[in-house]
């Protein structure tokens, strides 16, 4: 059975971002007519957060120290535009991914661990962007 996501607008799940990045993402999202959901709940899945079925905050902030952006319902052009605007304002977030049927049900902590592993493999180490 396919998962149904109630949010149809392009939506960014912004995981564990700081206040400056938070404000910049809000500005970009408004400019590009997309939504943004901020969360530090890495035990929730993208599906739960996109459907409003999980809390976006958790008490134990030690669980949420890896920032990540997840893009849902973006066309290729819209995603490229969003990333171009991020670069133009020097908004650097090392880990980024598109929500897919494959990763939709992973917890954000599982997804972040996989992205970190892929990033290390692609860059040959622990380098930032």
Tell me what you see in this structure:
By secondary structure, this protein is of the alpha/beta class. Helices cover 36% and strands 15% of the residues. It has helices spanning 19-31, 46-50, 76-88, 108-123, and strands spanning 11-15, 35-39, 68-72, 95-98. A 4-stranded mixed β-sheet has the order 2-1-3-4, sandwiched between helices. It is globular. 24% of the residues are buried.
Overall geometric form: globular
Helix/strand-derived category reads alpha/beta
| Total count of helical runs of at least 4 residues | 4
Walk across the major sheet and give the strand order: 2-1-3-4
* Poorly predicted runs: none
Q: How is the quaternary structure best described?
A: single chain
| Rg (CA only) | 14 Å
Can you write the helix and strand succession as a string?
EHEHEHEH
End-to-end span in angstroms? 37 Å
């Amino acid at each position: 059975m396919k998962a149904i996501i109630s949010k149809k607008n392009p939506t960014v799940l912004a995981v564990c971002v700081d206040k400056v990045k938070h404000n910049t993402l809000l500005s970009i999202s408004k400019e590009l007519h997309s939504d943004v959901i901020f969360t530090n709940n890495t035990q929730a899945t993208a599906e739960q957060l996109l459907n409003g079925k999980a809390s976006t905050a958790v008490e134990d902030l030690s669980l949420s120290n890896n920032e990540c952006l997840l893009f849902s319902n973006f066309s290729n052009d819209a995603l490229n535009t969003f990333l171009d605007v991020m670069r133009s304002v020097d908004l650097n977030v090392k880990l980024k991914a598109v929500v897919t049927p494959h990763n939709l049900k992973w917890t954000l902590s599982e997804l972040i661990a996989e992205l970190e592993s892929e990033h290390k493999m692609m860059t040959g180490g622990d380098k930032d962007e």
